[in-house]
Amino acid sequence: MEVIDRLVEGFGIISSVGVLVPMFLGVLTGSIVGVLPGIGPIGAMALLLPLTFTLDPTAGILMMAGIYYGSMYGGSTTSILVRVPGEASSVITSLDGHEMTKRGRAGAALAVAAIGSFIAGTLAIAALMFAAPTFAEVALRFAAPEYFALTLFAMLVLSRLTSRSFVKTMVAVAFGLALGTVGFDNVSGNARFTFGFFELTQGVNLTALAVGLYGVAEVFLLAERKGKIEDLPKVRLRELYPTRKEFRRALPPMFRGGALGFLLGLIPGPAGVTSTYASYALEHRLSKRKEEFGKGAIEGVAGPEAANNGAAGGAMVPLLLLGIPFAPAAAMLLAGFTIHGVIPGPTFISGDPELFWGLIAGFYVANLALLVLNYPLVTAFTSLLRIPRDVLLTAILILAVVGTYATRNTIFDVIVLIAMGVVGYFMQKAGMSRAALLLAFVIGDLMEQSLLQTLTLARGQASYLLDRPIASVILGVTLAVVLIPTLVKAVGGRLHGVMDTAGKGER
Amino acid sequence: MRMRTTARWPRRPWARLGGRRLTLIGLLLALGLGLIYLALAADLPIGTLDQPGHGFFPVLVGVLFVVFGAISLVGEILGASRHGYPTGSETDEDGRWTTLWRVAAVLAALVTYTALAPSVGHVVMASVSGLIILRVLGGRPWWQTITLAILLGVGSGLLFANLLGLPLPGPGLFVW
Predict the structure, then answer these.
(1) Main-chain dihedrals φ then ψ at residue A184, nearest 5 degrees
(2) Which of A171, A179, A188, A391 to mutate to test the interface with B (most CBs of B within 10 A)?
């Protein structure tokens, strides 16, 4: 019951205009960003990061969380109506969602996506809320070696999951870590790699890096192709309901997708995207109407949409309770925390209970706001796609430049922004993970600190790590995740070779 | 009878600068960056294993950067020699000169803004850079492009400086 009491207190904390208005603005911005291809949720969170400076920590962090949640849902609207996913986690929704639109069931698909997102988001927050105190107690036993093992786990597992090429993703990780070492070293206080630029003593600006990688690079990629949306189907408010039969079919996938997404959110990687594919595969496997998948199966909309919102909730667990982001969006949230002097981690609940429970309550309200906003405004959001592509891309670039310049009032950051845009463009071309670079940049500092502390504590003894069971287990799992796919591939290839030789011999 | 060769140097070498070639350039740049980073990191005090200095972590990162950069590059080169360079690319339009030209023009507009905005001001440079980007991406009639560029430049100045109170580069037009 203590949890419920705390939650009620949390609702009391956020019941003010100063918190609710920024949160609603965040949800609205997220929904718009999700609809429009270009800047993406990470870029939008990075751009709005400076705006949160002046806000109360609860309001600022909830505004960014609102963008995260909003973008997860916003992308599904255009996926369903015009088969243009605003962001990656909505790609799978377009398969059956758009087929439903073609059959005149766009309203039902949108409603199921909205309700599924709401149910999964709410369940994920409930799971976070009830699991948090126990999880935090376990996490209190973590010291430098465990944190080093965890940061290594986050980076290597993310590298395994984000790209087809582990080696290329490791280049991105190394680049992110290298950028993170620029500026004052937090352990010794020495300046590194500043080349005499005062701006670099504070390190590479996170906003410039994130907006460049995700916003500017995306504009470069979009600039390659010409294209426009031909016809936007009109969806009236009164059409936004599924039939009883459709709802009955959609309800179990919503719960399954939400649970699956939450669990995948606990693993480092782009859970928002992978969870939608996993949920789609699960629903296809469980369905008695397999032939309908790809032709407008409502389960193919409900499951993935619930999954990506469940994953957003799951990603909050390592962020809030360990202080380690397992996904790029969570990394941006961590930046939001740091700006306000808040350090999430095992002591977060006991050290700053008002903020923690205020955030939990805020997450509930943000989910509700998502449902309330998106339902009536669906036509308005979709009509944003009527903005001419050239005007939209130019406006995004102006916003990116101004937003980045405003963070530290220096043109140097704009140069970094453009450079990171070029880097992001080449990374996409080379099949490297931008998420891995961003995550490595954000958690690199923690990794260095924990590594140096561990080495000092170990006094050169490698067995020190093995004497710590939690760290050993985390390192063992990391090693398994990295090595097993390589070994399976190698053994599989050798077996194929043997079979081929045997086959030729028989002939 | 003249034999036509299938493998001839393209009239515009950059016309096929796409797909795997672009990947190779990217990986080569990454490896070069890794080598420079490692060389700079090696100048910092590394310390010992039980008393690491502030160059210890950067050296580790540099080694990681160079090793994985080299493996990626070799892998890509071997892949290219095995499969050949694609004439187009993985996607529809990647690697065609016309598409890369659009990207280069957008980049040039951004660089122009960065170089001149501190002295000329945001509104003028946002309009000029906007004009380049709109012309390249939109292909509208000039009068429409110019009108839109001015609207975007002035509009962004009014919105960000006057309404939101954000600092903008250079002398402010319309800022009151």
Answers:
(1) -65, 135
(2) A171
